[in-house]
Automatic annotation (TrEMBL), chain A:
InterPro entries: G-protein_beta_1-5 (IPR016346), WD40/YVTN_repeat-like_dom_sf (IPR015943), WD40_PAC1 (IPR020472), WD40_repeat_CS (IPR019775), WD40_repeat_dom_sf (IPR036322), WD40_rpt (IPR001680). GO terms for biological process: signal transduction. PANTHER family: GUANINE NUCLEOTIDE-BINDING PROTEIN BETA G PROTEIN BETA (PTHR19850). This is Guanine nucleotide-binding protein subunit beta. It comes from the Eukaryota. SUPFAM superfamilies: WD40 repeat-like.
Automatic annotation (TrEMBL), chain B:
It comes from the Eukaryota. Residues 1-33 form the signal peptide. Residues 101-124, 136-235, 558-578 are annotated as: Disordered. Residues 108-124 have a biased composition (Low complexity). This is Extra-large guanine nucleotide-binding protein 1.
Length: 435, 911
């Protein structure tokens, strides 16, 4: 028994020394890092990209993630039910009865709708572009994966999911199959060429099971059709062979250098597909080598909140992060330095800190798109750390939190998904290209 | 920039619209036939008409698609194997029997298109009389009714080059064109029924089937079978042959695909279970004949007599909805391009779809929504701006007025209409008409006016058979597109789902119990297999815990003995069994000891689950031996001292020997006791609705028929991974009620958390409860607290006081007097009428209610359950349903919450 106490003491001491070393490392880094990208760029005389509000326009709205039924089915809802829903709202005053003007207003603005019971909630949670065609797959809380043709804004596939609590989706590099994962702790693969069954449901071509927590993110390894990396709420990431359904390796978990909280996001290095980073609720990003599952190559500290999104910089030497602390950061992969913080000035009347939900880089890396939980979507100049545009203020912008965003493979368009059920595609008006 | 949507598509137009020579001839003016003849040098059998516009309507030629050819059941197999697979069965010169069976079973399109067969196949085989009659009739026709489509075979066709047997493209016809070749037996019937009192024309039309009927009579006896059958086909029931002559309407039912008719006695035999509606068994999977599309889903008298109402409804539903009966998108051509299937969906799903859409050629004016058949004036106005490919052609409606509307040259009647509407039409202007009827001249910005403004236009439009806009058509395009997107059909099935979230210890047992209660087949084979693995690996876990305990007990026992022998050396010699030569009753024999050490090591490394289920075959005998070993049994007797042994372990350990066997089959009870639901143990959910009849007729509950409509979904989430800042809980913001389960027996149980501190499980539950209640997603959510494992509480409350949990240290049950009086504790106390365990649950409920009120200012519902007992789970689920209902109806009875303190189960006093 005494030995246990001793061990505990030793452990505490070791933890303390690790922490002090970490602190020293941080100080050392700070000393060495006497500037950041923005300051350096300014000294070099660089000016921020300038956009005006009409340069980037919403050119498509993809609607379809709505569990809404058409007018002809409205009769299905019964009068008593509607009555009850009226009574639940503020239109009903116990003393005076129903406030008719208020009721009409509620009906008009849609706060109260006769088909309320039929509206299933359909937050868009995730989207992904095909590498070649202009197709998008999106996953929503209405329990559907929808494959869109981004050019025509038509749906090409609507896949009903077994488990509607889906959190992520991804397109295979060949564009022939999609993967999705969510609270069922499994990653399901659908082959888009397979025939729907009698009910019109697409059969699952493979289910990857093994995670002990929800699947928060998945991404195909770019040059290998059959490899997939998932991150999960069980604090691990995993590499899968899609054809066999086997888990090839697990990153984290019982190994000491793994994440200590839910992993929320992964991003694979586009120039070296053996490396990937994972962002986690423990406010760290870890770099992994697919070939060495036993330990993380490097751990990046800096954020003060859960890291919701990581994305490799196009050159594969840096990566960006978006976090609950409301900032995006740019890290250098090899040195581990935090190159830049993209922190927005907080609105005075905005008491709640809005978090970064998703980020994406333009093809050149000059622009960083970041979606925020309050519905903003900032376009940052990565060099000067200035906001050049807020898509949330533009015409036709989303009404809800931006939950996911992604750039098409040729960089010509940005797709944003939101909790307002819609996806929107943004592109440059005029002849400008996204730099 | 972002490229515009690709609109151009490689038109496979020519390839599709190749008309058969026969068909070309049916384009029917002699000039045209000649033109086709001229072209014969280039393409011998087909031509596309591109001459000057014709003033009259053109009947289109038929698509002869093999699958379209109505085939009645053949009584005898075809004479040659190719007989049924040949694309144009008639072309083959063949044995008379095979020919006649094919020719005639195919109703008339086949003979017609077959006419150009070498040397007139029909003529060769048919009896001379029939040939003469045929030719006579045909010639008679073409002379009399040059444009009638029913005289397909002009005499000139006989000399035409042979048709290569080529699969026909589904080139298309307007079904409305009278006498369309695809008209099948139903129309035939009408002919037959009417022919006697009809005029010459009808007689002439009927001549063809008649002729067929007559030829049948002239066959030699060798072909009697097929001949008589054929006779039956044209006259009587296709199956039994009865009922020749006239059919009264209510006596027959015909196949939607091939038109074969059956008498009421044979319908069910010929059509079987009708998975695709009224089709004979051979036709299942084939598309329906276009002329019969209208009757899809309309029950007939025969069926109504033969089937029960429910069956009929089912058959009709499948008839309407099965994919084989749907309009095929590539048969519908709009603006010269065949539709893609999505486009068809768009077209049919738009707010104002074209009525009675049939295969055929149409034009569609996207801007104004005008819709019409190719070469005709507008037929109706549908939703504008539908995303359909292809461009409107100037000649789409074959107008010759020179005036263009949206690029289409309008017809004379439209011109008249424009004049009526007061539109200046001098100088052949080009108009741009929008969906709302506003029009402007091309190239000019000013809106000149609204076509539909004058009431006279609306009045006169029907006279000129021009369409007027429908109100819904005026919706702007954006909206129309948006409406289209709803087309995912299973939303229709969706009914109101009340989602109930259940979390906490014992939640999975409740979910499993609910599955048993409401589902016919609660667990699939896979799920059972999964559960079996869980149970099997758990048994090793339990054994491991026992072995750990055994080690401790052994150490203690030997310590004790040493102590005893130290402080009282005299007693060391006393003979106590098991205390001699260093072994205690907890000692194992070496072989088992090795095994136990191995298990313990695996447990310490955390890979027990990886090793064991797979190895269970190998270790089953060892497990048996181990379990039966007195040392383990002795340890098991002291299981109360093993804090980490879960209560369910007792149940499984008792059956350890069975379970460890590979052939172990798990019982329903095992499933209920098992830990978790799936191996990943993520989210699990089940949907159910309360059956029509209430389980117990409670007089208080007025029966609400709505209940049967409302579906409930019970969603269980694992409490592992739940913490305050848990993001995915956002996904459950649409649940109606959170059922939080707390094991009532947890108050004296402990577990070791990650930092190695020992935590009381009740305190842990309280922390979890707090974090969930305070989660922003559940800000306004109703909570139902359910105490599970009430039975265990009942068992142990006597031995282990509730006050062993710090949180409950002020529990002072008013039982003391009774106890002093010596009455058993489990009997009801005279004071409150409740047992000690009930009072304990009550007390804990109050504790939680206080906590909840302090956190949220709202009221917590509390209940308790023994999850192993169906009735008790059912009552909790019903209680949950009632809470949802009450919350919905709350305002009806007054908005204040105070009215609610009297609700059922309020034996748990409100705080």
């Amino acid at each position: 028994m005494a030995s246990v106490a001793e061990l505990k003491e030793k452990h505490a001491a070791a933890t303390a020394s690790v922490n002090s070393l970490r602190e020293r490392l941080r100080q050392k880094r700070e000393r060495l890092l006497d500037t950041d990208v923005a300051r350096y760029s300014k000294t070099q005389g660089r000016a921020a990209v300038s956009f005006n509000s009409t340069d980037l326009v919403c050119c498509r709205t993809l609607q379809g993630h709505s569990g809404k039924v058409g007018a002809d089915e409205l009769t299905l809802i019964s009068l008593p039910q509607f009555w009850r829903s009226i009574l639940r709202t503020s239109c009903f005053k116990p003393d005076i009865g129903i406030d008719i003007p208020l009721l009409l207003q509620a009906l008009v603005i849609g706060r109260l709708s006769p088909w309320e019971g039929f509206l299933s909630k359909s937050y868009v949670y995730s989207l992904d572009w095909t590498p070649e065609k202009n197709w998008i797959v999106s996953a929503s809380q209405d329990g559907r994966l929808i494959v869109w043709n981004a050019l025509t804004s038509q749906k090409t596939h609507a896949i009903k999911l077994h488990c509607p609590w889906v959190m992520t989706c991804a397109f295979a590099p060949n564009g022939q199959s999609v993967a999705c994962g969510g609270l069922d702790s499994a990653c399901s693969i659908f082959n888009l060429n397979s025939q729907p069954d009698r009910d019109g449901n697409m059969p699952v071509s493979r289910i990857l099971t093994g995670h002990k927590g929800y699947v928060s993110s998945c991404q195909y390894v770019p040059d290998q059709e059959t490899r997939l990396i998932t991150s999960s709420g069980d604090q691990t990431c995993a590499l899968w062979d899609v054809t066999t359904g086997q888990r090839i390796s697990i990153f984290g978990g019982e190994f000491p250098s793994g994440h200590t909280a839910d992993v929320l996001s992964v991003s694979i290095n586009s120039s070296n597909s053996n490396m990937f980073v994972s962002g986690s609720c423990d406010a760290t990003v870890r770099l992994w080598d697919i070939r060495i599952a036993s330990r993380a190559v490097r751990t990046y500290h800096g954020h003060e909140g859960d890291i919701n999104s990581v994305k490799f910089f196009p050159d594969g030497q840096r990566f960006g992060t978006g976090s609950d602390d409301g900032t995006c950061r740019l890290f250098d992969m090899r040195t581990g330095h935090q190159l830049q913080v993209y922190s927005r000035e907080q609105d005075r009347n905005d008491t709640e800190l809005s978090t970064v939900t998703s980020i994406a880089f333009s093809i050149s890396g000059r622009l960083l798109f970041a979606g925020y939980s309050n519905g903003d979507c900032y376009v940052w100049d990565t060099l000067l750390a200035e906001v050049v545009l807020n898509l949330g203020n533009l015409q036709n912008s989303h009404d809800g939190r931006i939950s996911c965003l992604g750039l098409s493979s040729d960089g010509s368009a940005l797709c944003t998904g939101s909790w307002d059920k819609n996806l929107k595609i943004w592109a440059f008006s005029g002849h400008r290209k996204i730099v | 920039g972002f490229p515009p949507p690709c609109l151009s598509r490689n038109p496979s137009f020519l390839g599709r619209v190749i008309l058969l020579a026969a068909a070309a001839a049916t384009l029917s003016s002699p000039a045209m036939a000649a033109a086709a003849g001229d072209g014969a040098g280039d393409f011998s059998f087909a031509a596309e008409y591109d001459g000057p516009p014709l003033p009259y309507s053109l009947p289109r030629a038929i698509p002869l698609d093999l699958s379209h050819i109505p085939l009645a059941s053949l009584s005898s197999p075809p004479a040659s194997p190719s007989a049924s697979s040949s694309p144009l069965p008639v072309v083959r010169p063949l044995t008379p029997s095979s020919l006649c069976s094919t020719v005639h079973s195919h109703a008339h399109p086949v003979p017609r298109s077959a006419a150009p067969a070498p040397a007139g196949g029909a003529a060769v085989v048919d009896s001379p009389t029939s040939v003469i009659e045929n030719h006579h009739a045909a010639a008679h026709h073409s002379a009399e009714l040059p444009s009638s489509p029913s005289d397909v075979e002009g005499p000139d066709e006989a000399g035409r080059p042979a048709l290569p047997p080529k699969p026909h493209q589904p080139v298309v016809t307007f079904a409305e064109t009278s006498g369309s070749l695809l008209q099948t037996s139903d129309d035939e019937d009408e002919f037959e029924e009417e022919e006697d009192d009809d005029d010459d024309d009808a007689a002439a039309r009927a001549a063809r089937p008649r002729a067929a009927g007559q030829t049948s009579g002239s066959f030699s006896p060798a072909h009697i079978e097929s001949g008589s059958r054929r006779g039956a086909k044209s006259r009587g029931c296709y199956k039994c042959g009865k009922g020749g002559g006239f059919w009264s309407r209510g006596d027959k039912e015909s196949c939607l695909a091939c038109g074969a008719r059956y008498c009421s006695g044979c319908v069910l035999r010929a059509m079987g279970s009708m998975p695709e509606g009224r089709k004979c068994l051979e036709c299942i999977g084939r598309p329906v004949a276009e002329s019969r599309r209208d009757v899809l889903g309309q029950g007939s008298r025969v069926l109504r007599r033969l089937l029960s109402a429910a069956e009929l409804e089912l058959v009709m539903k499948s008839e309407r909805e099965c994919p084989a009966n749907q309009l095929r998108a590539d048969d519908v051509y709009v603006n010269g391009l065949s539709l893609l299937s999505e486009e068809l969906v768009i077209l049919q799903g738009c707010p104002c779809p074209p009525p009675r859409l049939r295969p055929g050629f149409y034009w569609y004016d996207k801007v104004s929504g005008f819709w019409g058949k190719e070469g005709h004036k507008p037929h109706c106005i549908i939703s504008p701006n539908l995303n359909i490919k292809g461009f409107l052609h100037q000649k789409a409606s074959n107008g010759n007025t020179g005036i263009l509307i949206n690029g289409r040259e309008i017809t004379k009647s439209e011109l008249q209409m424009l004049k009526l509407a007061g539109v200046q039409c001098a100088g052949k202007p080009h108009f741009w008409v929008n969906a709302d009827g506003t029009y402007q001249e091309e190239g000019q910005k000013t809106v000149k006016g609204k076509i539909w403004d004058k009431p006279i236009v609306k009045l006169l439009s029907p006279v000129l058979s021009l369409p007027t806009p429908n109100k819904a058509a005026n919706q702007c395009g954006e909206e129309a597109v948006h409406m289209v997107n709803r087309a995912v059909p299973d939303y229709l099935e969706q009914r109101t789902v009340h989602k109930l979230l259940i979390v906490g210890s014992g939640a999975s047992t409740i979910l499993k119990q609910v599955k048993y209660l409401f589902m016919d087949k609660p667990f699939t084979v896979d799920e059972r297999e999964d559960l079996k693995l869980i149970i099997q690996s758990n048994i090793y876990n339990y054994l491991g815990i026992l072995l750990e305990g055994r080690e401790r007990f052994e150490e203690e026992a030997s310590n004790d003995r040493r102590k005893i022998s130290q402080c009282d050396p005299s007693s060391s010699g006393r003979d106590e069994s098991g205390f001699c030569d260093g072994t205690t009753q907890y000692s194992l024999i070496p072989r088992l000891k090795a095994f136990s050490e191995w298990i313990l090591k695996a447990m310490a490394l955390g890979n027990l689950e990886d090793i064991f289920p797979a190895a269970s075959r190998e270790y089953a005998p060892l497990v048996e031996e181990l379990w039966k070993d007195p040392a383990i049994q002795a340890t098991y007797k002291r299981r109360n001292e093993l804090p980490f042994l879960p209560p369910a372990a007792n149940y499984f350990l008792e059956k350890a020997v069975d379970i460890s066997r590979p052939e172990y089959e798990l019982s329903d009870m095992d499933i209920l006791y098992a830990d978790g639901i799936t191996s990943s143990d993520g989210l699990a959910s089940t949907e159910f609705s309360f059956p029509q009849m209430p389980f117990d007729a409670q007089g208080v509950d007025e029966y609400d028929p709505q209940d049967a409509l409302i579906r409930h979904q019970l969603i269980r989430i694992n409490n592992r991974g739940l913490h305050e800042n848990c993001k995915w809980l956002q996904m459950f913001d649409d649940v109606r009620l959170v059922i939080f389960c707390v094991a009532a027996s947890d108050y004296d149980e402990y577990y070791e958390d990650a930092n190695g501190t020992i935590v009381n499980k009740m305190i842990e539950s309280r922390q979890l409860f707090e974090s969930i209640v305070l989660h922003p997603t559940f800000e306004q959510m109703d909570f139902l607290l359910v105490f599970t494992k009430f039975d265990l509480l009942d068992q142990k409350i006597d031995k282990s006081p509730l006050t062993s949990c710090d949180w409950f240290d002020d529990f002072t049950p008013l039982l003391s007097r009774n106890l002093m009086n010596g009455s058993s504790r489990s009997t009801r106390s005279s004071h409150s009428g409740a047992t000690l365990s009930q009072m304990a649950v009550h007390y804990m409920g109050v504790k939680f209610k206080r906590l909840f009120r302090s956190l949220t200012e709202r009221k917590l519902y509390v209940s308790h359950v023994n999850a192993l007992d169906e009735a008790s789970v059912l009552s909790v689920i019903r209680y949950g349903r009632e809470i949802v209902k009450w919350e919905e109806e709350k305002p009806v009875f007054g908005a204040s919450e105070t009215t609610y303190s009297e609700e059922p189960s309020s034996y748990l006093a409100d705080v």
